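Handoff note, outgoing to incoming analyst
You'll be picking up this chain. Sequence as last confirmed:
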Amino acid sequence: MARDSLPAGSPAVEPLPTARRYHDYNGFSLSWERTVPGVYWHQTDRVLVAAVLRPARIRIDVGNNPAENRASGHYECAGKHVSIVSAGTDYVSQWRDEGEILRWFIHPVIVDRVAYDCGRRGSVEIADRYMIHDAILEDLSELTCRESKLGLLTKLYAESIITVLVVQLIRHYATDPYPASITARSLDSRRLRKIKEYVEAHLDQDLSLNELAAQAEMSPHYFWELFRNGTGLSPWRYVTYRRIELAKHLIARSDLRLADIALQVGFSSQTRFTESFVRSTGMTPLAYRNPRRLRRPT
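Most recent structure output, in case you need it:
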């Protein structure tokens, strides 16, 4: 039986065989894995959200823990699904088919901080839910998996996604349900201008949500919501938009190599820059620089 143990302070896991990507951030981490048939034991001191991304026959056995009033249970599913596991719960998963899974490991402090920004005071406990269907959690996991495979999973993107994901957990899966909602206010004009100027001056850097929130002098989770209300875009989408706009300007009005432009606008490689540019404009940077090459002879 393979072990998937997560000791306190170290969310790293042994990979389930075949393939794996792991990302660690401030207060949460995530891993994407392709799995083979087998039996695995899981334990973590963090809240776990596990999204099975393609149909596979799976059985989950949850151990009885009378001290924490957690009953044993057996769950089976053959399709895509999401499981939510509270911090400290042990369970065993038996995979009968090859599969693909994205798992979020979220420190309880992150949950409490988001809840506080949503107007709730005190600690929040997330309930165990196994093999359920939640369109928001499934969509967030699919999007994150896609960004990871493309090599475009930045800190800012991951931190933005985790904010939405945790709000969903608080709203629907807390042991004491609470209608989490943040007021519809937006950033005042002074703070919004300050953030935009900061972004423009640091487009070549790997910006984080914590960094931008510090400029606005507020918590990351509250900042994310207010920024989106004020601009219509999440911080991650806004930064990506500004990077592509600067890239378009440099491509059209300079002789810089595309690899140099990629670094100047904050992409770690020309390949990642090209992928993001194509998704935003529908054409490659080279085609944008030389549009005449796309014209067919008459």
